[in-house]
Structures are given as structure tokens and as C-alpha cells.
Amino acid sequence: MSDGHETPPGWSAEQPPPYQAPGSPYSGPAPSAWQQPAPPPPPPYGHQGYGYMPPPALRPGIIPLRPLGLGDIYDGTIKLIRSNPKSVLGLSAIVAAVAAIPVSIGQALALSSLGTVLADPQANADALESGGFLSQTLPTIISSVVSLVAVTILTGVLIRILGRAVFGGKITAGEAWRLVASRVPALFGVILLIIAIMLAPAVPIALIVYAVAMAGSPGAAVGLGALFMILYIGYALFVNTRFSFAAPVVVLEGLGPVQALRRSWRLVSGDFWRVLGILLLTMVLAYLVSTVLSFPFGLIAGIAGVMGGGSTGATILVAVVFAIGTTLGAMITYPLQAGVTGLLYTDRRMRSEAFDLVLQTAALEQQRQGWVHASADELWHPSNARRP
Predict the structure, then answer these.
(1) Bridge partner list, 5
(2) Which of 25, 159, 276, 342 has the fewest CB atoms within 10 Å, measured from its CB?
(3) 177 inside domain
(4) 129 in Cβ contact with 55 (< 8 Å)
(5) Where do the Glycerophosphoryl diester phosphodiesterase membrane domain residues begin and end (predicted)?
């Protein structure tokens, strides 16, 4: 017994009992620092605090409305194609076919010339070489120009479709075109400015290499040209990455060409290497997909061109088969690249401008109303950006 308090079993009078709550039959003096009660056990898994899993992000459309990972970007691109296949794949097929026709004709003429040589080995090799060069070069130039025009317009239309698909809305090709038509001049302005920036160092490089070669040092000219080529590839990757968001900015934010380039530069800042890596990975994937899809058609066209012996029917057949293979490959790769670029742009705005909060607020309101209306397009304007 001590101070009128009963000593619990197992405790001596010299050793004070552990601290008990008031009202306990073994209450004692206030505990010292080493006698503080043990912390409560952790809550069971699933409760906030230990192993707590936050609720999933709001996802009204093709992406969750939060900063995106690599898987989210590619998954969103696939969902973009699947959610609106008529508009996305239909427009891509038309553009791919228009761009593929000149190249297909050139390849068909080249294979027909090869078939003529095999049928008549005495044919003039120099004339064949000259004709093959012309049949390949001229259609390629024409196709490049056509592709530049068609793909620029297609990219704008696909970006507009993507802007609505983020909220789960669908848009027809005609409606997308009506919304993009006024932005086409600005899109071409962006493309021409980027081409000018890309070609700016090419002229002095060519002059330097030519001057070294004319000075009687062809070996030095070749080495210098190889060095400049490596540096130019790095320069091209840098420029394309920095200005990769210019087209989405023109279409979704309504800015002019110069403003779009500046805004793209700012959006890429702080995440340059990630943007570059994703764009390079997308280029590789697009090339592999295009090659796999078009390879069987190229094989059939090559056999038909060689076996046809240069006949008109064989030439037409080869051109058609080439066009089908090229169109099929580009029909998938065009929306793949446009979708990844558009979602990367969206991700950068969410990371640098807290744009996901803007999208979440709008999505909740549209869910309350039960439909996605055209006012969602106005949310992409830069005035809605928030600084985190």
C-alpha cells in the first residue's frame, strides 16, 4: 500500500504502476516521459492515413483530368480514334490517299522500268537511270507539297476533335472543319515559320562545306559536312520540340503564328527532355506501324511491277497497290501523332498552369447538365490558365 493506493498484482511498492486513465481502479501519478502511453495502432488498410488510396481523377472523356503519364497519353490517343472513328480515320484516309497518289505513281513507273530491263537486257542503262531518277524525284516533291497542305489541315481538324473528346463529346468532321477553317491561314503561317527557322542554318553550312571543297580539301569537306549534319540533326530536334505545341495553340487558343510559337516555347520550358522523348518514341512507333501495315502491299506491288514487264496494266496495278498500302499506314499514323501532340500540350498546361482544375470544374458542370456543349471549346483559351 502506498499513499492510499492499492498496488496492482505484479508490481512492487518501489515501482510505480503504469499511468491509468482517471477513474481506473489503479490510477496513479502523472506519467513521466518514459511512461507516456503507446501511440494508437494504425487504422486498417483503406482508411485515410495508412495505405490511403485517393479517389480516381474525374474522367469524362478520353483522359483523366489530371497530369498525364505516358500510358495516359497513348491510351487517350487510342480512345480518341475509337470514340470518333468516322471523323478521325475517315479524314486521315482521305488525306493519306491524296498525299500517296504522286509517290505511288512514281514508284510504279520505277518498277515498270525495272521490269522492262529484265524483259530486254539490251535496254539503255543510262536512259533507265535518268528516267528512274525523274520518276522518283518529281512525284516525291509533289507529294511533299501536297502532304504539307493536307496534313496541316488534318492536324488542325484532329486537334479540334480532341479538344471536345477530352470532355466526352463527339464532333462531326463537317463541324470540326467549320470551327477550324478560320484558323487555317494561321496554321500555314506556323508551318512556314518553322520551315524558315529550320532552313536558316542550312545555307551557311552548305556555303562553308562548298568553300572547303573548292579549296582543294575534299576530305576535310566530307568530315566537316558530317560534323555539321550531326549538329543540324540536334538543332532540328530542338526546334521541332520547342515548337511542337504551336498547332494546338493556334487551333484551341486562337493565337496567331508568332504568338503560337512563343507560347509553345514557354509551355515546353521546364519539361523539354520529357516532351522530346515522347515525341521521338511516337515517331518510332508511327514508323513501325506504317511499315508493318504497308509492307505486304509493297511486296505485292514489287512482284507485280517486275513480272509485268512494263505493261500499262501492270503499272496501274502497282500504283493502286502502293497507294492502298501507303494510305493504310498513314491513316493510322496521322491521328497517332496528332493525338499524342495534342495530349502532350494538354498535359503541359495541366502541369504548368493548373489547367486540370479548369477542366474538372467544367466537366462537373457539364455532367450536371447531362451533355457536352460547344462552350467547352472556349475553355482552352489562355485566359483560363491558373498559376499553381
Answers:
(1) 2
(2) 25
(3) yes
(4) no
(5) 227-333
Phi, psi of 5 (to 5 degrees): -110, 140
Helices (H) and strands (E) in the chain, counts: 12, 0
Query: What are the cell numbers at 238?
Result: 530542338
Residue 293 has pLDDT above 50, yes or no: yes
Of the candidates 144, 143, 171, the one whose C-alpha atom is nearest the C-alpha of residue 158 is: 171
**Cβ neighbourhood burial of 354 (10 Å; 0-12, 13-18, 19+):** middle
Is residue 10 within 8 Å of 4, Cβ to Cβ? Answer: no
Task: Tell whether pTM > 0.90.
Answer: no
Q: Which residue has the cell 506491288?
A: 301
What lies within 8 Å, CB to CB, of 179 at 6+ separation is: 160, 377
Tell me, yes or no, whether 115 lies in a domain: yes
Range among 64-68, 225-229, 376-380 with highest mean pLDDT value: 64-68
324 inside domain? yes
Residues 225-234: pLDDT tens digits?
A: 888 889 999 9
Secondary structure (3-state) at 252 = helix
Contact 120, 212 (CB under 8 A): no
Torsion angle, CA of 364/370/371/372, rounded to 10 degrees?
A: 0
Parent domain of 338: 70-376
Q: Is 25 a domain residue?
A: no
Task: Give the C-alpha distances (Å, rounded to integers) separating 202 from 211, 215, 241.
Answer: 14, 20, 19
Residue 157 near residue 248, CB atoms below 8 Å: no
d(CA 87, CA 3): 89
Domain count across the chain: 1
Q: What is the mean pLDDT of residues 221-241?
A: 90
3-state DSSP of 11-74: CCCCCCCCCCCCCCCCCCCCCCHHHCCCCCCCCCCCCCCCCCCCCCCCCCCCCCCCCCCHHHHH
For the chain, report the end-to-end CA distance as a whole number of angstroms. 65
Instruction: State residue 206 phi and psi, 5-degree precision.
Output: -60, -40
Cell numbers representing residue 189 in the block: 503561317
